[in-house]
Amino acid sequence: MKKLLAVLVVAMLVVVSAAAVAEEYEVTLILKDNTSAGWRYLAAAAIATGEEIGVKVTENSPLETQNADEQYNAVLDAIEKEVDAICIAPVDSAGIVPAIEKAVEAGIPVFTTNTRAFVNNPEDIVTFVGVGNEQGGYDIAKYMFGLFPEGQEINLIIMDGNRAGQTTLDRIAGIERAIAEDSRVKLLDSQEAKFSRAQAQETMESFLVKYSDIDLVIALNDEMAIGCYNAIVAAGRVDEMLISGFDGAPEGLQAVLDGQISATLNQSLPGQGSEVIKAVKTYLDGGELEDWIRVGGEVCTPENAAEFLGRLVK
Amino acid sequence: MKQAFKAHADALSRLAAVALIFAILILISPSFGTITNILNVLRISSLTLMIATGIAMCMLVGGIDLSVGATIALTSILFGRYFQIGHSALEMVMGMAGILALSAAIGASNGLCVAYLKLPPFLATYGVQQIARGLAYLLTEGLVYSNFTEEFKFIGGGYALGVPTPILFAAALLIAIGLMLNKTTLGRRIYAVGSNREAARYSGINVKGTLLTAYTLSGLTAGIAGIVYTSRLNCAEPTIGAEFAQQAIAAAAIGGISFKGGHGNVFGVIIGAVILTLITNGMTLLGIDSNWQVGVTGVIIILSVLIDRNTAKKKV
């Protein structure tokens, strides 16, 4: 009888202490979709970091990529669930603001990663974790322009992303700043291909017909850069022009190593994932945070692509 | 001579429309008229053409198939996930056969719902679309599949006799289905069922079997289109094809396939597919924002259906 009582007491103590330890923060992570590879790296890093530091990360990203409506609903769901924090990479930087304001009203802190939200009150966002897209656009454009000899005109095509999102607007601003500083560059054309490989491939096919002399294609992400590459190869004009991407996703880095594209910009997607969760923990534990936690930002070229790829593929 | 002209007035007027659009575009952008661009336009339209050929069969029996885009996505992911580099040619061919059988089965499930469960085609194929799309997403598991053999890439990205391969596949498919519809009893049955289902039933035609066949063939053509498209993109994506069904239906409608069923020549689908691609291609060449292109395409569809209806009225 005494033995049984002792066992019960010990069992209760174990359960109670386990429950105390299990008291972790609950965070909803909302990315731009839950199928494309790039976001998987961010989500995986966020979840893994959460496991290490006691933050339970639940992802609720839209099925269909670039679906702003589903993201809006995901924020409302998170408010219903009374989570401890929301981390979001908004598709529509302006459209998501009402949902963010509702979350803040409900007392839930909001963190943005990868893409900013155009909030009316800057205090509504605790911190933004991401790369400087404007600087990134500038850096990669300068690097690519630098690959051409002095005095040679550079006929440029920009494969644009989605102008509802801040990332696109910032990257374009950076590229335009680089263009303004270089008189060799002549912007032939640009079209939004919504970050899609398929759409970029078809749009590039039309550009290849329209323009008989293209020197450089700057794509706003790696997927579109690869789509452009496919189109250029099919047209037999691969020696005529250079291509650059953005993101530093494994496919992009591999394309750099294979010589298909010349450069990409490291967004450090896994870095974004782990840093945003760490920021959540710091904030909820009462710590101080900067407005902007920078990650990534390096131009990935054939010289260093292998190193960046090694960091990603673990 | 006059009679022959009248009989084919429909097709001729459509050809005239294509020629007119073509002429306008050449005037505006000289690079439009090059062989490279013409082949480009034909290659891009060949995908719409393949799918439209399948959907045309469903429309001819008085139905519709909204699931083609999802079938293409599922075909794409299945091939991309299981048949990358490292498989022998025989394995890949068998794999393709298996995947095509699956796409035909998806079509058959549409047919079963419409013919035997008597569900409205719009709803039945919409439901099947959701299931197929969901499966495609599940199988993707967030990875990118793009490691294909050179032989596979040839299917969608190669040239034979100077012509891009997708055009050849589309042409072969169109000719096969066109011959079936115009020269075989199955074809006659499809037209009969579409024109007047009750009369067809009373004259001894197996209506359910005919419906089932039409939908199965639609699924099969979507599977073929999926393999060609995956090869062209050199990548398997679960998100592709969301707008394919609409484009294909538009191409079929512009090409003269009536929504009521039983009327229209499948060869007209070429005109529809080419007109749609000319508009998109033309707008890109003119520098018109891609966001406008979607709206303009919608206007063209409404116009062509109106013209089609007025032409039909005049005939009666």
Helices and strands in order, then pairings?
The complex is a heterodimer of chains A (314) and B (316).
Chain A: H1 2-21, E1 25-30, H2 37-53, E2 55-59, H3 68-81, E3 85-88, H4 97-105, E4 110-113, E5 125-130, H5 133-145, E6 154-160, H6 166-180, E7 185-192, H7 197-210, E8 216-219, H8 222-234, E9 242-244, H9 250-257, E10 264-265, H10 269-284, E11 292-294, E12 299-300, H11 305-312
Parallel strand pairs in A: 1-2, 1-3, 3-4, 4-5, 5-11, 6-7, 6-8, 8-9
Antiparallel strand pairs in A: 10-12
Helix pairs in contact in A: 2-10, 3-4, 5-6, 7-8, 8-9, 9-11
Chain B: H1 2-7, H2 9-28, H3 35-60, H4 68-82, H5 89-115, H6 121-140, H7 150-157, E1 159-160, E2 163-164, H8 165-183, H9 185-195, H10 197-202, H11 207-233, H12 244-254, H13 268-285, H14 290-315
Antiparallel strand pairs in B: 1-2
Helix pairs in contact in B: 2-13, 3-8, 3-11, 3-12, 3-13, 4-5, 4-6, 4-11, 5-6, 5-11, 7-11, 8-9, 8-11, 9-11, 12-13, 12-14, 13-14
Structural overview:
The complex is a heterodimer of chains A (314) and B (316). With 314 residues, chain A is α/β, with parallel strands linked by helices. Chain A folds into two domains: 24-131 and 268-296, 3-Layer(aba) Sandwich (Rossmann fold); 133-265, Response regulator (Rossmann fold). Chain A contains eleven helices and twelve strands. Chain A has helices at residues 2-21, 37-53, 68-81, 97-105, 133-145, 166-180, 197-210, 222-234, 250-257, 269-284, 305-312; strands at 25-30, 55-59, 85-88, 110-113, 125-130, 154-160, 185-192, 216-219, 242-244, 264-265, 292-294, 299-300. In chain A, the strands form three sheets. A six-stranded parallel sheet of chain A has the order 2-1-3-4-5-11, sandwiched between helices. In chain A, strands 7-6-8-9 form a four-stranded parallel sheet, with helices on both faces. In chain A, α2 (37-53) links the parallel β1 and β2 (55-59). The longest helix of chain A has 20 residues, at 2-21. Chain A is elongated, with a radius of gyration of 23 Å. Chain B has a domain at 51-241. Helices cover 76% and strands 1% of the residues of chain B. Chain B has helices spanning 2-7, 9-28, 35-60, 68-82, 89-115, 121-140, 150-157, 165-183, 185-195, 197-202, 207-233, 244-254, 268-285, 290-315; strands spanning 159-160, 163-164. A two-stranded antiparallel sheet of chain B has the order 1-2. Chain B is globular, with a radius of gyration of 20 Å.
